[in-house]
Design goal:
single chain; alpha+beta; Alpha-Beta Plaits; 3 domains; five-stranded antiparallel sheet; four-stranded antiparallel sheet
């Protein structure tokens, strides 16, 4: 029976054979099946990894695109806000400028009303609204240190204006019959007159750069040099007189201070690059408060501000103000 059972089992099933070392030997079908199954698993894993990688890449790309679009829209909004702020700031500046202009106009009207309601007016009150006027570019100023007649001044300047190409019928001379200050008015429109002023002033200098001097004959038959210049405001004229007097004092009492000069565009007196004082008059008659000092510069140069100011104001005073009247 045992032999029969063994024989039946050997005939009905496949069993691994054993070699001389008693090790199992599988048939080729099982190995192929396992290899195929392993290959399928590897393909499945590779597909899953590729699909996951593509999904992750697409997700990141979509996120980057979405973020860039959000940032772009945010930048546009910020730019729009900045533009609105700039417009608002410009509008505010314009409104402030208009408000300041209105305030200045109101101040002038109040001052004019005060003068109109005042019972007594001084010469300074009458000229206060003209002190800081802009220069008249269409006229030329002619002045003399001594009194001269208007006719004599006219005869003296006629050759100069004729040589500059301006005929006699294109200009007129204003001023007192006898005086020190006169004005040449050109009988053209403002633009043409301003151009004639430039041409006539340029004609005072020859090709070598030498200025032509013009003299007027006085009543006593002596000759006096005429000073010819473009028009300037009363304030600029006062600043120039103040600077001239201050320069005179510095030249007399502080000769060791070098390169002392007047800068007209800044209405200031400098010693080299060191500012000394700036001229800020409020009327034709300067006071001590009309000089603003650079205290540090004055100290560096060793200047006595009080003594300089007193002497400068004495030079600015009119001759009649310096007379000591007695009983």
């Amino acid at each position: 029976m045992a032999d029969g059972a063994v024989g039946t089992e050997a005939a009905g099933t496949k069993r691994p054979c054993r070699d001389s070392a008693d090790q199992p030997v599988f048939h080729g079908e099982l190995g192929d099946l396992l290899a195929k199954h392993l290959e399928q698993q590897q393909q499945l894993v590779s597909g899953m990894l590729a699909s996951s990688s593509q999904g992750t890449t697409k997700l990141l790309s979509d996120f980057v695109a979405f973020s860039e679009e959000r940032f772009r829209k945010q930048d546009e909004k910020i730019g729009a806000v900045d533009a609105r702020c700039s417009n608002i700031e410009a509008t505010q500046n314009a409104v402030q400028a208009e408000m300041q202009e209105l305030k200045d106009g109101q101040t002038r009207l109040e001052e004019q009303l005060r003068l109109a309601n005042s019972n007594v007016l001084s010469r300074e009150d009458v000229a206060s609204d003209k002190f800081d006027r802009p220069p008249d570019l269409s006229i030329i100023r002619v002045s003399s240190k001594k009194f001269a007649t208007k006719v004599a001044v006219e005869n003296a300047i006629t050759p100069w204006l004729t040589n500059a190409g301006v005929s006699r019928d294109l200009w007129s001379l204003s001023g007192n019959t006898t005086g020190k200050k006169f004005r040449v008015h050109f009988l053209q429109n403002p633009l043409s007159s301003a151009r004639l002023v430039e041409e006539c002033l340029a004609a005072l200098k020859d090709e070598n750069g030498t200025w032509t001097e013009i003299y007027v004959t006085l009543v006593n038959k002596t000759r006096e040099k005429l000073f010819i210049s473009p028009d300037e405001s009363p304030k600029a004229e006062t600043q120039r007189r103040m600077a001239k007097s201050l320069l005179r004092v510095l030249a007399e009492d502080y000769a060791h201070v070098e390169e002392v000069h007047f800068r007209k565009n800044k209405a200031s007196v400098f010693a080299g690059k060191v500012g000394i004082a700036i001229m800020q008059p409020t009327g034709p008659n300067p006071s001590r408060d009309s000089f603003l000092w650079n205290l540090k510069g004055v100290e560096e140069l060793g200047l006595e501000r009080g003594a300089i100011l007193t002497k400068t104001l004495s030079y600015l005073a009119s001759p009649e103000d310096q007379i000591h009247w007695c009983v």
